[in-house]
């Protein structure tokens, strides 16, 4: 059960792209935040074991235009079924930037997309994105609750 009245479910696509953005003035200044994709996988999920690319961009408006810093990592979404996680762990161990989903206390899963430091709090936006557009296999069964920003401990 979600804390929201509606969630998004991926029915069938070849290209996967999930994203969002937020004004940094809504966040605490002088704080490091991490962005997490909060999701579940339907029983019939398929095609989500391929690496996806995540980015967290802190975009600052300056007199010369927008500047950004980018934290890009390769993620693996997979079911929480043991046979899928075993293979996923072996593949992620071979890739230095591989991140795996973690089960939360509310029965959803989360995976860190990246992190950023909110210096002053009123000088830009943070943009978060998860994308897999390299392998054109069919992807289905991803249920997205949202992208959550939390201060890093």
From TrEMBL:
It comes from the Eukaryota. InterPro entries: PP2-like (IPR025886). This is Uncharacterized protein.
